[in-house]
Amino acid sequence: MRPIICLLTCLAAADLWAGEPAGLLLYKVWENGLEPYVSRILVTSRHVRLDEGQDLGDFTLFDRQQGAIRNVSVADESILLMRPAGGMPKPATELKLSEKTEIDPDAPRVAGEQPQQLWLYTNGELCRKLVTVQGVMTDAVAGLAEFRRTLAKIQLTTRPVESSLCEQSEFLYASDRSLGFGLPLRDSYAGKNQVLLDFDQQYDVAPELFLVPASYREISMPGLSSE
């Protein structure tokens, strides 16, 4: 399974009440050096699951109540557990975040809402370009933002100290800021581009997709398995 934000293949958890519909986000992703692939995100009130569009195979699961991220590897029959604790420290260098937005009135509406173009800057440097729409799939967007904030705590311990200002803002200290502008329809950052293919607020999904195999060996990542 490919890295979700460029670093780790993370996650898995359990306990989902049966029959709860999920919010579905389906993206086509292009990354340098990789064949295009699908990224599926399923969000419930308890979990966020990330996979490549298939029910079987490796997947990432975020438990929103526990703040736990697990990565399930089918080939190894293993689960990597990461449960970071505490808040985020302040960056060593001051990060001045700014943005520019622009609405194209001729762009087709999405779920009745008008998309906008968005440029995100850190200390004057362009870091990320998006097309977003507000007021659409808000529950799923909120769950994905929680996942990004938790992932940022993990990446803080694994990213090189010499990370660029854009890397610090987009992956660490303001990892969820793009989601504050709504649902990403197009997203371009750090050599990675993705386009939304489909979305569904009430997607019927089997509860088993939010469970991890009981027979798999669980491994706690050192320093990231606080109780």
Question: How does this model look, in words?
Answer:
The chain is mainly beta and about 230 residues long. It has one domain: outer membrane lipoprotein receptor (LolB), chain A (Clam). It is built from two helices and twelve strands. It has a twelve-stranded mixed beta sheet with strand order 7-8-9-10-11-1-2-3-4-5-6-12. A hairpin with a 2-residue loop joins strand 8 (about 115-120) and strand 9. The chain is globular. The protein starts with about 20 loop residues before the first strand and ends with a strand.
Structure, briefly:
With 227 residues, this protein is mainly beta.
Entry keywords:
single chain, 227 residues, mainly beta, outer membrane lipoprotein receptor (LolB), chain A, 12-stranded mixed beta sheet, 12 strands, disordered N terminus
Q: What number is the mean pLDDT?
A: 88
Task: Order the strands across the largest sheet as they lie in space.
Answer: 7-8-9-10-11-1-2-3-4-5-6-12
The domain count comes to: 1
Biggest sheet details: 12 strands, mixed
- CATH topological fold name: outer membrane lipoprotein receptor (LolB), chain A
The CATH superfamily is known as Lipoprotein localisation LolA/LolB/LppX
User: What is the highest CATH level, the class?
Assistant: Mainly Beta
Q: What's the end-to-end separation, in Å?
A: 27 Å
What is the CATH architecture assignment?
Clam
Percent strand equals: 35-45%
> How large is the radius of gyration?
17 Å
Helix content: 10-25%
The computed structural class is mainly beta
| Number of DSSP E strands | 12
Which blocks of ≥5 consecutive residues have pLDDT under 50?
1-18
Element order: H for helix, E for strand: EEEEEEEEEHHEEE
Note the total helix count.
Answer: 2
Shape: globular
